Amino acid sequence: MARHIFITGGVVSSLGKGLMAASLAALLQARGFRVRIRKFDPYLNVDPGTMSPYQHGEVYVTDDGAETDLDLGHYERFTGVSARQSDNITSGRIYQDIIAKERRGDYLGATVQVIPHVTDAIKNFAMSDTDDLDFVLCEIGGTVGDIEGLPFVEAMRQLRNEMGREQSCFVHVTLVPYIAAAGELKTKPTQHSVRELTGLGIQPDILLCRCDRELPESERRKIALFCNVRREAVIPALDAPNIYAVPLQYHREGLDAEVLHHFGLTSPAPDMARWDEVTDRYEHPEGEVTIGVVGKYVGLPDAYKSLNEALVHGGMANRVKVNIKWIDAELFEKDDAEIAAELEPMHGILVPGGFGERGTEGKIASVRFARERGVPFFGICLGMQMACIEGARSAGIAQASSTEFGPTSEPVVGIITEWMGKDGLEQRAAGGDLGGTMRLGAYQAELSPNSHVASIYGSTTISERHRHRYEVNGSYREALEGDGLIFSGMSPDGLLPEIVERPDHPWFVGVQFHPELKSKPFDPHPLFKGFIAAALQQARLV
Ligand code: GLN
């Protein structure tokens, strides 16, 4: 049976539990263990698909088409293990299933309650589909003491009782703040947070103490004494210079060794070569490029988490530092001279995914600038759609638009109502539900043999993840290709345009999918690697 590691957070939110879980999994993997990480989100949304990126950051999409929490992106980037639908659950989904069963009469007249029905559903989720694993890491969203998190903590308590200490481990992430007036790190918030957890029946086994400076030995011992753990189980977690340095740092502080000690396991020292290489590439760039990202949710970096990381990976692949200039597309609906003044310093322009009309004219203007000036351009999902609308306007179709923005006489981008899914034909009504109804998850595309993208991928068949409701309208293909925008990737049935490119441009690619979701620091995505290489070329020119 797989061993379970439960990860909770205390004191404040944003302590980096997701990164911690991802890093611990990477360390166990580096010791040869098979791992998987799961996220338990206590909120009542069924999934984050309908949540605003401003509130919740990006929606991470898995191969099997689940819209999940962005922490699953960290998990996948750090372990290379593809996340699945079964790795993220919310209170909303649990209640949805339970209420559907109750309505069907499946409970045979019983009273349906948080304990045992909700807690059993959480336990089943934690235990399901884990046969081939050594460790399952379960991260509980939120902070211990949150009302909506209580059933999750209770389910973990029950699991510990059932599995025993040898099969389960509780890691609690806390904050040890520095109080300037006292000139000291303070352990009291950690003590309170552990007391809160023990009040719920859980004695943590390992404490990961986030702090911004060295934790003195005396404080480490004090935390151990008051929180009832051994001194070695109090792991100082200082802020890391970059996220890819976190596994190395936690290893130095003894986190993985302490986890193995808890389980009574021994293993040879982990093979950290992958992480040494990644941090070396990150910390010792040999040049730099500046990429302008013209998007809508630029105020919150988490809204484009995977994109940000994929650009960094593209930089590592080329051994350059990537400076990202986030440009608010809405403020960008200016005259040509102002747009040129802002975009001229950019070595590459990227228009990312997005929803709704706001800011789209600014995005289209950026595509035009990139096309006319020969600046490397990368359009992702909505960005590809904008590249096609811009291309159509350049081809003389002045009214070119998307039906996403309202009725139009020239629907260069239109709603997809039918496509071939994994289980046969998928159909959608134009005015249907918003949640979980997009074309989601991994789909194959066929690339034209002599295209730029086929040479970038080194293959003519690819699989990439999608999340969209609209699609470039194939009936405009001739007009767009006549103007130099070539459809170089199509769905296998030849119906849905997946990639467009401009052969007469140094680097101009638009993709209907989200390649950023599959990029990893130790395996940068070829499109990001190619885009940054082209930006580097551009930097040498200007
Ligand atoms: N809004 C567009 C669509 O639904 C693009 C989506 C996206 O960029 N992810 O097709």
TrEMBL record:
Positions bound to ATP: 14-19, 71, 240
PROSITE patterns reported for this sequence: GATASE_TYPE_1
Biological pathway: Pyrimidine metabolism; CTP biosynthesis via de novo pathway; CTP from UDP: step 2/2
Enzyme class per UniProt: ligase
CDD domains linked to this entry: CTPS_N (cd03113), GATase1_CTP_Synthase (cd01746)
Regulation of this protein's activity per its record: Allosterically activated by GTP, when glutamine is the substrate; GTP has no effect on the reaction when ammonia is the substrate. The allosteric effector GTP functions by stabilizing the protein conformation that binds the tetrahedral intermediate(s) formed during glutamine hydrolysis. Inhibited by the product CTP, via allosteric rather than competitive inhibition.
Catalytic activity: L-glutamine + H2O = L-glutamate + NH4(+); UTP + NH4(+) + ATP = CTP + ADP + phosphate + 2 H(+); UTP + L-glutamine + ATP + H2O = CTP + L-glutamate + ADP + phosphate + 2 H(+)
Active site: 381 (nucleophile), 514, 516
Binding site residues for CTP: 13, 146-148, 186-191, 222
The keyword Ligase is assigned to this record: yes
InterPro entries for the chain: Class_I_gatase-like, CTP_synthase, CTP_synthase_N, GATASE, GATase1_CTP_Synthase, P-loop_NTPase
Domain of life where this protein originates: Bacteria
GO cellular component: cytoophidium; cytosol
Residues covered by region (Amidoligase domain): 1-265
The keyword S-adenosyl-L-methionine is assigned to this record: no
Sites where the protein binds L-glutamine: 54, 354, 382-385, 404, 469
Sequence positions that bind Mg(2+): 71, 139
GO biological process: one example: 'de novo' CTP biosynthetic process
Subunit structure: Homotetramer.
Note: CTPSs have evolved a hybrid strategy for distinguishing between UTP and CTP. The overlapping regions of the product feedback inhibitory and substrate sites recognize a common feature in both compounds, the triphosphate moiety. To differentiate isosteric substrate and product pyrimidine rings, an additional pocket far from the expected kinase/ligase catalytic site, specifically recognizes the cytosine and ribose portions of the product inhibitor.
PANTHER family: CTP SYNTHASE, CTP SYNTHASE-RELATED
Role according to the record: Catalyzes the ATP-dependent amination of UTP to CTP with either L-glutamine or ammonia as the source of nitrogen. Regulates intracellular CTP levels through interactions with the four ribonucleotide triphosphates.
Family in the record: Belongs to the CTP synthase family.
Descriptive protein name: CTP synthase
